[in-house]
Every structure is written in C-alpha cells, then in structure tokens.
C-alpha cells in the first residue's frame, strides 16, 4: 500500500464483494476459456451487478458487459434457465484506485490471500498480451515481492478446493 501511495495511487475505503461465478453447462475446468462466455453475480453494499466476460486472447483479456440488477435471486434463476451453472463463490475485500490510466485493486480474497490487480482498457488494435506485459512491469516497479498469476480468482479457488466447482 505504501509503494502504491508513493506513486500517487489513492486507494478507496474497503468494500466487501460477494461474487458467484457461472459457466456454460458444457464447460469444465481444464478446458480453454477463450471464446467462452462466463457470468458473475456480485453483491457489494446491497447493490447487485451482473457481468458477462468472454476471454479473447487468454482468460485475462476479455470482452465485458455489466449492468445493475434489482434482484440477485431472480438473475440467478435466469442464468440457470440459460444453461449456466454456478462454479465457485468468490468473497473478497477490495480497495481500488487509479494509477494514471490503469485501474488498481488491492484484493484480499477469502481462501487465497492478497492480490494486486491492474486493469487497463484495450483498443481493438492493441495486443492484450502486450498490455498485460506492461501491467506486469508496472507492478514489479513497486519494488515489493510479487508473484504473477495468469489464472483468474475462480480458477485459483478451484485449484485449492476442487470440490468448489
């Protein structure tokens, strides 16, 4: 947090996020995520968000659509009716900020630990892989011990608790 502060990143107050991840019924962990739509229901401060992500270059580079939903349980039922299945529950405490044009999140994920997540919007003519390498260099410039993962939280949680999804 101090290294981020020294670079002008002001982190928000902590928020608790309760996410339920969903996958198409025919998809299984171990299969490629590229080109496959995945859904998420998130509750934060009583607000429910529905998100669909479709990985395009790798599972970290996604087309994303998000909207507020009034009723989490009804959206859950709608996802089941569309043949999505719940995979894992991801509960975390998040603090967010901006580092220039990059979004920064400091996440404490229940069952996994602490993560620094950087995200940037990528234009259609840009390489997602190149942007990921740039974001990795930014994190390493903080001068703190980090380990880069190319897995999403749901995959990491599934790896530590295979019965979870």
UniProtKB/TrEMBL annotation:
<feature type="domain" description="CYTH">
    <location>
        <begin position="40"/>
        <end position="143"/>
    </location>
</feature>
<protein>
    <submittedName>
        <fullName>Adenylate cyclase, class 2</fullName>
    </submittedName>
</protein>
<dbReference type="Pfam" id="PF01928">
    <property type="entry name" value="CYTH"/>
</dbReference>
<dbReference type="InterPro" id="IPR008173">
    <property type="entry name" value="Adenylyl_cyclase_CyaB"/>
</dbReference>
<dbReference type="InterPro" id="IPR023577">
    <property type="entry name" value="CYTH_domain"/>
</dbReference>
<dbReference type="InterPro" id="IPR033469">
    <property type="entry name" value="CYTH-like_dom_sf"/>
</dbReference>
């Amino acid at each position: 947090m101090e290294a981020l502060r020294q670079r002008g990143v002001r982190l928000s107050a902590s928020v608790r996020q309760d996410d339920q991840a969903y996958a198409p019924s025919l998809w299984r962990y171990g299969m490629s995520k590229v080109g496959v739509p995945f859904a998420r229901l998130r509750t934060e401060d009583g607000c429910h968000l529905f998100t669909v992500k479709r990985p395009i270059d790798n599972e970290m580079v996604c087309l994303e659509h998000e909207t507020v939903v009034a009723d989490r349980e009804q959206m859950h039922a709608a996802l089941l009716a569309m043949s999505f299945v719940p995979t894992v529950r991801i509960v975390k405490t998040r603090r967010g900020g901006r580092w220039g044009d990059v979004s920064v999140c400091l996440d404490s994920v229940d069952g996994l630990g602490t993560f620094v997540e950087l995200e940037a919007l990528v234009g259609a003519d840009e390489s997602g892989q190149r942007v990921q390498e740039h974001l990795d260099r930014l994190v390493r410039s903080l001068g703190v011990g980090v380990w880069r993962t190319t897995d999403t939280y749901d995959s990491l949680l599934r790896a530590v608790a295979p019965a979870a999804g």
